[in-house]
Design brief:
Purple Acid Phosphatase, chain A, domain 2; 2 domains; 6-stranded mixed beta sheet; binds fe (ii) ion; Immunoglobulin-like; alpha+beta
Length: about 400
């Protein structure tokens, strides 16, 4: 009798989950969708974004601080929703809701601030790279993972959720990703699991500026990174990605988001000319460059990219860029100024940690997960590396 009961328990434990999996497998994977995120924010405009694998229509409703609301409808059914909101006021906080095309069902909600017009106004941003690990059972998404992840979302992926919480708690004006947003060949589901799910708390409260890393290029023929973050540019594989680099302005700082992967920055290249002219004509008090591959790294020299070191770095140094932020090395490294430029590597977003072999050129280093918080007031730039403790692990000031 006892023996029979035992077998019943075994049958129940084995058969019920198996039946569940079969059911989910028959139902098939859910279409991938994720959001919200806000990009390309200026003093008067922003793009509110989300993604649907099955083309759909969306509507964005923005509450105006002066009263009333602005409603923007997508022109057509599409996958990447990128709705431009214009006519906004500088340094103003806006709340938005993304609804279905009929404006009935609210799908996402979030907030963002527009860039300030006044160069003296203080702001902050968070920066980190190399976050994009997927949970151990990521590939179950083929078998209905999307339905189960609500229950299991923290398991196997704790670090990214944790770092996102740390960033969200600091309420930065925007969030800069230094590259390697994901590490998987299955990019769409990968971006959902490795980035949009764990970083939702950040993406709901501030705009995103993303640069790409080598791992975002896993599917060479069609890297989804450019579909999601290219700002509507029509880019052709392999050659077209070369015009990725762009700039934006926030307060006193001109930001350069640079491709340190495809672009070789040769002396006669168009992009080098563009960069030289951009820096030559710059009238902003400070310049911060954002790239993935670092020109220098004390991670055993493995991650020093000759092209970046020999072609790109001399331009940045000669034109007196103030701060260069990189990822790729999975650790934190702040260098003493090299050629007058401060270089910080923060590839500490949660993928893994790698050992540093520190040389005398490092001012501070750490093998710890965390993110860089940069506070700007006029010409003053203050950086802090936060690891979840009550005090930052590193602090530096550029006066
Ligand atoms: Fe990486």
């Amino acid at each position: 009798m006892k023996r029979r009961r035992w077998w019943r328990v075994v049958a129940l434990v084995a058969v019920v989950p198996a039946a569940g999996f079969v059911g989910l497998w028959i139902a098939g994977p859910q279409p991938v969708s994720f959001g919200p995120y806000v990009q390309n924010v200026t003093t008067t405009s922003a793009e509110v974004c989300c993604f649907d694998e099955v083309p759909s229509r969306v509507r964005v409703r923005v509450a105006l601080p002066e009263g009333g609301e602005r409603v923007v409808d997508a022109a057509q059914r599409t996958q990447t929703h990128r709705l431009a909101i214009t006519g906004l006021r500088p340094a103003q906080r806006y709340r938005y809701t993304i609804l279905d095309g009929d404006g009935v069902v609210a799908r996402y909600a979030g907030e963002f601030s527009t860039a300030p017009l006044d160069a003296g106004r203080s702001f902050s941003f968070a920066a980190v790279g190399d976050s994009g690990d997927v949970p151990a059972w990521f590939h179950l998404h083929r078998f209905g993972w999307g339905r189960m992840r609500g229950l299991l979302r923290h398991a196997g992926q704790t670090r990214q959720w944790q770092i996102a919480e740390w960033i969200a708690a600091k309420r930065p004006d925007f969030f800069v990703h230094l590259g390697d947003v994901i590490y998987t060949h299955e990019q769409l589901a990968g971006y959902r699991e490795a980035f949009f799910a764990p970083f939702r708390s950040v993406l709901e409260q501030c705009p995103l500026v993303a640069n790409f890393g080598n791992h975002d290029m896993h599917t060479w023929a069609r890297p989804e990174f450019f579909t999601l973050f290219a700002g509507g540019k029509q880019l052709e594989p392999k050659q077209g990605y070369r015009d990725w680099s762009f700039t934006f302005t926030w307060g006193s700082v001109r930001f350069l988001v640079l491709d340190a992967f495809w672009q070789k920055w040769e002396a006669d290249s168009a992009m080098r000319g563009w960069l030289e002219m951009t820096l030559l004509n710059n009238r902003h008090p400070r310049v911060v460059a954002i790239l993935n591959f670092p020109p220098f790294s004390d991670e055993g020299g493995v991650h020093e990219m000759p092209v970046v070191q020999q072609q790109l770095w001399p331009i940045l140094a000669r034109r007196k860029v103030d701060l260069v932020l990189c990822g790729d090395s999975h650790n934190y490294q702040r260098f003493k100024p090299i050629d007058g430029v401060t270089l910080v590597i923060a590839g500490t977003g949660g993928k893994s940690l790698r050992p540093i072999k520190p040389t005398a050129r490092l001012a501070k280093h750490a093998e710890a997960f965390g993110f860089l918080l940069v506070k700007v007031t006029g010409r003053r730039i203050e950086g802090e590396f936060w690891t979840g403790k009550s005090e930052p692990l590193d602090r530096f000031v550029l006066e």
